[in-house]
């Protein structure tokens, strides 16, 4: 079993697919150093605030009627999430999970849940009805539904008789 898919988020989108996520993976994002010093300071100063929650998991399926996006956002309230359609048919899902204020008297043994912000962007296909986008959130799962235009019928071919 390879460690690479789990390290990179087990992404299924194709690099050649124009409708895949517009995320650009930067392996050095969050590292406060020049990449030429990589071996010496690999994990010194890692900014877990911005990187740990940066890659919200999103599924995108297409049904005959719509494109449906489902994002797992545990611990995020709907007031902390924004869904926008930008110029160029770009669907953007963004938000932030706030960290709870820590009591100074508490002793922490392990901290694995993180706070921070996230942004995911997707280029929608030509058949997306951008003015009909709907979003709902239930049990930490955001569902964004983008209806599709009805398939245009192919024009009938009418044979024209040539006179003369």
From TrEMBL:
<comment type="similarity">
    <text>Belongs to the small heat shock protein (HSP20) family.</text>
</comment>
<keyword id="KW-0346">Stress response</keyword>
<dbReference type="InterPro" id="IPR008978">
    <property type="entry name" value="HSP20-like_chaperone"/>
</dbReference>
<dbReference type="Pfam" id="PF00011">
    <property type="entry name" value="HSP20"/>
</dbReference>
<feature type="domain" description="SHSP">
    <location>
        <begin position="49"/>
        <end position="163"/>
    </location>
</feature>
<dbReference type="InterPro" id="IPR002068">
    <property type="entry name" value="A-crystallin/Hsp20_dom"/>
</dbReference>
<dbReference type="InterPro" id="IPR031107">
    <property type="entry name" value="Small_HSP"/>
</dbReference>
<protein>
    <recommendedName>
        <fullName>SHSP domain-containing protein</fullName>
    </recommendedName>
</protein>
């Amino acid at each position: 079993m390879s460690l690479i898919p789990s390290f990179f988020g087990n992404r299924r989108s194709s690099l050649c697919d124009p409708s895949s996520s517009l995320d650009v993976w930067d392996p050095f994002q969050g590292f406060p150093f020049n990449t030429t010093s990589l071996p010496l300071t690999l994990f010194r100063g890692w900014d877990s605030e911005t990187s740990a929650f940066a890659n919200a998991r999103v599924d995108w399926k297409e049904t005959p009627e719509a494109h449906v996006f489902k994002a797992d956002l545990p611990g995020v309230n709907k007031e902390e999430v924004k869904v926008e359609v930008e110029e160029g048919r770009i669907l953007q899902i963004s938000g932030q999970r706030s960290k709870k204020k820590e009591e100074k008297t508490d002793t922490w043994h392990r901290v694995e849940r993180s706070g921070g912000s996230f942004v995911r962007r997707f280029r929608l296909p030509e058949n997306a009805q951008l003015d009909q986008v709907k979003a709902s959130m239930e049990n930490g799962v955001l569902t964004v539904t983008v209806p599709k235009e009805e398939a245009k019928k192919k024009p009938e071919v009418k044979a024209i008789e040539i006179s003369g």
